[in-house]
Amino acid sequence: MHIGYAIVFVTNMAEATAFYRDVAALPLxxxxxxxxxxxxxxxxxxLHATKTPPMSRPAGLExxxxxxxxxxxxxxxxxxxxxxxxxxxxxxxxxEQFGVRIAMYEGPDGLAFSVSEARSAEDT
Length: 124
Known about the structure:
It is a single chain. This protein is an alpha/beta fold and 124 residues long. It contains two helices and eight strands; from the N terminus they run E-H-E-E-E-E-H-E-E-E.
């Protein structure tokens, strides 16, 4: 069994698609006004349009039942610099945590997401 997809509900599809495609550099698979998919390895990240406004909550204080998306990149320092160049809010600077280098950022609609550095075969 594997997870097939994760859905992020967004209030502005064009803005969210541009963010995940152009800033987060996720490869676009399909785009429409109500549904967009990114061709990520493993599970598909999908955006679904909604008119419901985002929930207000400080990062790190997510309620039970909420989810945080995250992905791995080959070089977290390079990726972090790219996100900072795009003025993406950084909620946690890259650091060693849980045996991996990881950082956290804020995307469209206030969604916190994590990015970790991919581990090499000798690290596992």
